[in-house]
Amino acid sequence: MYSTSEMAKKLSVSTQSLRNWDKSGKLVASRTPTNRMFYSHDQYLEASGKAKYKKTGSDVDAVSGKVVLITGGTGSLGHALSKRICGHAKKVIIFSRCELKQANMKQKFANQTNMRYLIGDIRDRERLSTALKGVDVCIHAACMKRVETCTYNPLEAIKSNIIGSTNVLEACIENKVRKTLLVSSDKACSSATLYGGTKFVAEQVFINGNNYATRDCLFTATRYGNVFASNGSVRQLFENQAKEGKVKVTHKDMTRFFMSMDDAVDLNLFALNNTIGGEIFIPKLKATTIMSFAETFAPGIPVEIIGLRGYEKIHEDLISDTEMLYTVDC
Which residue range or ranges hold the HTH merR-type domain (predicted)? Predict the structure, then answer.
């Protein structure tokens, strides 16, 4: 947010010009409860004619020389992000609950001297506050993500995905973490499951959490579909089922969005490089039928149609009709 004098300086105009523009409707300022005028960064970009998002420099610019903390860092995305950034970041901190997964990750990255491992739970606000001291960038990937598990354990899903995300936001504001990114899901769009609902709320907490922070702390999110090589992915499921002689599909017409792990890492780093706070970065992806996916990764294996689970959608969305009104192609 910019005061009248700050905005005038950035646009190289007088404060009186800004007041005149506000009265004429050319550039209308927002107002505090005490009637002080202020402007958003979006208004500055629009008034100055500058592009919002521009891919420049290296994809690791946002983390180079920085201390980066990844919640849920022992997962597939955490491994891939660590591999990409550990040679550029000052320090990479893996924050997660499972000792065994951390021990395995330590062995995999044994030659990386700038990686640290902290046991903790995003439900524990105090532990997060301690872990985030001195952190410049936080990538929030920890969550409960299995649809059926969230449905069967709704209160636990709320504690992890909503309250846990709120804890991350508040701890980042407390520690003045410069950039914080939420890794979300296409199931948050027009959500029909409890999991999707919790991720939708987490998105809203993050993009609107900028209202609680100064310009020193930026909160943003990414939203995308299934990642080929992630733990528990449908690819792994089909390959395992193929060994047993039958692949199970919920609906023959079902489609899903898929992307590679490298593309997922690219998207998250692009978001960190380009965020001005309050966005959801969404990739352009083509939907693939589950039947085609089964034929690719379990060729020649019989398929059994088992029916939809709960409120599972046949077709996922990445952007809702309402969101299209506010979408920028970058």
Answer: 1-36
